[in-house]
Amino acid sequence: MATVNLADARRIIEAAEARAAEIGQPMNIAVVDMGGNLVAHVRMDGAWMGSVDISVNKAWTSRAFDIPTKDLGANSQPGQQFYGIHASNHGRVMIFAGGIPLRRGGEVVGAVGVSGGTGEQDQAVAEAAAGAL
After folding, report:
1. PANTHER family annotated for this entry (predicted)?
2. Is the overall model pTM greater than 0.90, yes or no?
3. Residue 127, C-beta contacts closer than 8 angstroms, at least 6 positions apart
4. pLDDT by residue (tens digit) across 42-67?
5. Which of 20, 21, 35, 62 could bridge across to 27 with cysteines, CB 3.0–4.6 Å?
């Protein structure tokens, strides 16, 4: 079964770093494999220390549910079908933008999580990262 490997993760992180530099926002970038296990993480110079854990958990969440965290967030607001999901899995579930499943040939093989800016910035960097696979 295919999964994200270290070479993939390095390419994904490189693309994320380039996009983060382009927008002028240092980021934490995490890549997990198909089992949700951390393959690689980078904390760019000046990125928030508090976003390390968030980036890893965004990647994990995106892989755990095979959905972008941005979409999960939209569906987890009061009155929505996944309301309260952020309290599951010992609080590990992230419900804001910046986590994207990584697909190869239509199959989810891992995920990327980005944290350190606004939701829009995190999402833009995560999209650039996912595009590198």
Report:
1. PROTEIN GLCG, SLR1406 PROTEIN
2. yes
3. 100
4. 999 999 999 999 999 999 999 999 99
5. 20
